[in-house]
Amino acid sequence: MAAKTRNKKAVKRTGEKILARKTTARKKQIKAAPKKVKEEIPGVQEISIQQAKFSHPGIAHVRRMMPEELPYQYGKDKIILQVRDPWWIHAYWEIRPETLEKLRHELKDDFYKAKRVLRVYDVSQIIFNGKNAHRFFDIQINEEANSWYIDTAGPGRSWCVDLGLLLPGGRFITILRSNVVHTPLEGPSWITDEEWMIPDDMFARLYGMGVGLGRSSPVGKGWQQKIKREFISSGIASMASPVKKAVKEKSFWLVVNTELILYGATEADAKVTVQGREVKLRPDGTFTLRFALPDGKQVIPVEAVSSDGEDKRAITPIVNRETK
What we know:
The protein is an alpha+beta fold. The chain has two domains: about 80-180, Immunoglobulins (Immunoglobulin-like, Sandwich), CATH 2.60.40.10; about 200-320, Immunoglobulin-like. It contains seven helices and 16 strands. The strands form five sheets. Strands 3, 4, 6, 7 and 8 form a five-stranded antiparallel sheet that branches. A hairpin with a 4-residue loop joins strand 1 (about 80-85) and strand 2. The longest helix has about 30 residues, at about 1-30. It is elongated, with a radius of gyration of 44 Å. The N and C termini lie far apart (about 135 Å). Mean pLDDT is about 75; it is low at about 35-40, about 210-220 and about 235-245.
């Protein structure tokens, strides 16, 4: 039994020596072989895969580069006005050193005594010419500022801003004038759909006012049928609402409706009259009126007087209608 055990151990040692010699020879063969041959030798690829099995190379992040940095200034005298929300607007500007040097040379000592000011104009519903603003207010700014947020305290209006110098004597010199912007309303729009239906009595009253019959125009089905027949016979219709009943006299007919919408705005506490009749203003000082528009020339004088009675403005739209 002991001899048999010794023989097994000898065979095992002999096999281990032979395997070690083969492994050493294979390693030398792999090391000496060219790269292309290594790839063809069995076991090389398996070893490479095993080594790279748990390799996690980092992801290369490519840095985004701007093609060109934005310049700090563009060398132009300009001021831009933009809307932030119904209450706030934002202005930013650039003044060239040459422009300031010219003012410094012209004003001399007054230049250093002057205040740099943003003058904010309310130009709602007008074509602004620099002198006809509804009102304005000043904001004093520092010399280093190149932008400013402005609280207008008035949604749904139009604004324009001057950047200038306010001299000690009260004279204002405009350096730059901005574009005009319109702030949105704070809530839903008060402008309703232009297509609507109205009762027969209101139709009669509006049409009667349009043709000069006054507020006490006749109302009734007979009167309305007569008017509609006259419209159909002439091929023309001018009234405030569509015809509601079919006309039996003709199988084919055409109706054309025309209206005039007048709207505007002023100070909320002002008194406004249109064609001599006082108009009730909304809380923000706006107003809207609708008129029947017959053929001919319509003159609609609009007048506004301030609450203290010292200021007065008048605008007269003139509308001509011709139907062919």
